[in-house]
Amino acid sequence: MKFYIASKLENAAQVCRVANALKAAGHIYTYDWTVHGPVRKEGLGRVEEVSMLEAQGVLDADVVVALLPGGRGTHVEIGIGIGADKRIILCAPDEEMFYGDDVCAFYWHKNCTRCVGDEQQWIDDILAICAIAENTLFDEQKCRVCGCTWNHACPGGCYWVEEDLCSRCAKIVQDAKNSGKIVHPTVADMITALSACAVDTPQEGYPCEGCYLYPFSNDGRMSTGRTCFEHLAMDVSEELRRLTTEAEKAWKQVHDDITIMQKFAAKKCPHGYADCCHREEEAR
Predict the structure, then answer these.
(1) Residues 115 and 169 in one domain
(2) How far apart are CA 279 and CA 283, in angstroms?
(3) What is the CATH number of the domain that holds 113?
(4) Which of 263, 267, 201, 281 has its CA nearest to residue 233?
(5) Which tens digits make up the pLDDT trace of 6-55?
(6) Is the peptide bond before 38 cis (omega within 30 degrees of 0)?
């Protein structure tokens, strides 16, 4: 897993020790700012270059570690990480930094995990969090309704309301419950849900034991799951058949109108229209 460590310049030695421990465990350091330290005396061009390199280091990381207390740059980098939806690990020597009267509100952002203790405790906690993130968070955490994941959120963004339910789907479910109506999906909605469904064992009856009833269920019950593969496929087929029938009816009507217009186009209507008294005569 790729990581970046943010902290103030005075903590450079500590940053190096934590980084070495993480690298020894097989993790990748995206950018090591301790190799050059402060660059203000090298000119503003160099300052700009380093600021871009450090920001890119945050963006390239899977996990951003911040060793507190930090300076202005530390908190800018925490902000970049939160904005990029990165997992943030905040390490502090005591709980006062997280519970004091002057606590930074963003320390309690949903993306942040707070660790308290000495340096070795930080390293142990960081390694444990990285292990969980590698195995579950980024690859396996998935919304049970739409199938979105940590790295592939819903269009426009979403966040976790439950371990396996995103905010977008939670709102759909709640709106459906409040209105007392069934939310009927579009074909695109059903195909999206179909692709996210993993059950592939045929079942009898609807809903069956393999079904998680979801907001699009046509049995009238509201919940936050989804149907099994087979019944969702049945829903898709039924909806496609309905749309096909409607399209066929619409086309038949258009075809009939065109036929009538062509039939009377050669006749001279006293009113100057093809579809006029001649239609009435044809009907008689």
Answers:
(1) no
(2) 6
(3) 3.40.50.450
(4) 201
(5) 999 999 999 999 999 999 999 999 999 999 888 888 999 999 999 999 99
(6) no
